[in-house]
C-alpha cells in the first residue's frame, strides 16, 4: 500500500463549543486527504476519466485535538474489488504521536462521462500499490 501523508495545524474555525476539533471537521479532512492522494498519484487523463464517490464512512474518535495542535494525517487504499475501494485514514497528534481518529471509507469508482459505477481497472489498482 502507498501511504500518503500530510500535516494540518488546528485553526480556530476547526473548533466546536468544547474548544476541540469538531467531528464534522474530521470528516472533511478524511475527504480532503483522499482527494489530495488521488490527485497526487493519478495522471491528468485518469483524473478526467474517473471520479470517486463515497458510499459510507466509519469513523472512530480516539482523542481530542486542540487549537494550534499539529495533526499528522495518513491515508492509503487497503483494498479494491469490483467498483469499490476501501480507504483508511488515521490522524495523530504530531507531537505525542497519539492516535486521534481512525476512519474507513468505502468509495465507488464512477465513469466521468456516463456518471455510472464502473469496475476498477488494473491501471487504477496499480497506482495505489507501492
TrEMBL record:
<dbReference type="Pfam" id="PF13279">
    <property type="entry name" value="4HBT_2"/>
</dbReference>
<protein>
    <submittedName>
        <fullName>Acyl-CoA thioesterase</fullName>
    </submittedName>
</protein>
<comment type="similarity">
    <text>Belongs to the 4-hydroxybenzoyl-CoA thioesterase family.</text>
</comment>
<dbReference type="InterPro" id="IPR050563">
    <property type="entry name" value="4-hydroxybenzoyl-CoA_TE"/>
</dbReference>
<dbReference type="InterPro" id="IPR029069">
    <property type="entry name" value="HotDog_dom_sf"/>
</dbReference>
<keyword id="KW-0378">Hydrolase</keyword>
Amino acid at each position: 500500500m502507498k501511504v500518503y501523508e500530510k500535516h494540518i495545524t488546528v485553526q480556530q474555525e476547526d473548533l466546536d463549543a468544547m474548544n476541540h476539533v469538531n467531528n464534522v471537521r474530521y470528516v472533511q479532512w478524511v475527504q480532503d486527504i483522499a482527494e489530495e492522494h488521488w490527485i497526487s498519484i493519478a495522471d491528468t487523463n485518469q483524473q478526467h476519466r474517473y471520479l470517486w464517490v463515497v458510499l459510507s464512512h466509519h469513523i472512530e474518535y480516539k482523542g481530542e485535538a486542540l487549537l494550534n495542535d499539529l495533526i499528522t494525517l495518513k491515508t492509503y487504499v487497503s483494498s479494491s474489488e469490483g467498483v469499490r475501494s476501501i480507504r483508511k485514514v488515521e490522524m495523530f497528534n504530531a507531537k505525542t504521536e497519539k492516535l486521534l481518529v481512525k476512519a474507513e471509507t468505502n468509495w465507488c469508482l464512477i465513469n466521468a462521462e456516463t456518471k455510472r459505477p464502473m469496475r476498477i481497472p488494473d491501471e487504477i489498482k496499480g497506482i495505489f500499490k507501492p
